[in-house]
Design goal:
With about 150 residues, this protein is mainly β. It has 2 domains: about 80 residues, SH3 type barrels; about 50 residues, no CATH class. The chain has 2 helices and 9 strands; from the N terminus they run αββββαβββββ. The strands form 2 sheets. Strands 1-8-7-6-5-9 form a 6-stranded mixed sheet, with no helix packed on it. A 3-stranded antiparallel sheet has the order 2-3-4, covered by helices on one side. The N terminus is likely disordered.
Length: about 150
């Protein structure tokens, strides 16, 4: 049955790319979710280490050293979630650097898409990454005002 008859629309989007270099992992045992007061949105995780805890962000990256529970919670609350909307870059296994945006961040996976520059009709490529996100995903280092912002 054609898509129009099913009531859905086609999206101009490439299939999720699953590079062989990335292997899915789950949140390790012992980690605890920390939720924002009020809306209960997950801000990050608290990972036990030694006599304290390490605050871990939604990408699975440490944002503190070993601190007490309250300090780890406070750091996650201060950090918030706004940084997830920033521009990012992904170094593909072949060494190419791609300008990307976060699409999905969860304990099962992190999904990013090639930046569409706000256009709704452009084809994007999706990349599925493991959680914690690999070091290949970094904050954008180029000029966000340039389409080719990663080149000098």
């Amino acid at each position: 049955m054609p898509a129009a008859e099913r009531g859905s629309t086609r999206r101009n989007r490439a299939a999720v790319r699953r590079p062989g270099a990335y292997r899915a992992r789950m949140i390790p045992d012992g980690w605890s979710e920390h939720r924002r007061p009020g809306d209960r949105e997950v801000l990050g995780y608290l990972r036990p280490e030694g006599d304290g805890f390490v605050a871990v962000d939604r990408l699975g990256r440490a944002v503190t050293g070993v601190v007490d529970w309250v300090e780890a919670e406070e750091e996650l609350e201060q950090r918030g979630l706004g940084w997830l909307a920033d521009l990012w870059q992904l170094t593909d296994p072949d060494g190419a650097v791609v300008r990307v945006r976060l699409v999905e961040v969860g304990p099962e996976r992190v999904v990013v898409k090639s930046d569409d520059f706000g256009a709704v009709d452009v084809q994007v490529r999706l990349y599925e990454l493991p959680f914690p996100a690999p070091a290949a995903l970094q904050p954008f280092a180029g000029d966000p005002g340039r389409i080719d912002g990663l080149t000098p």
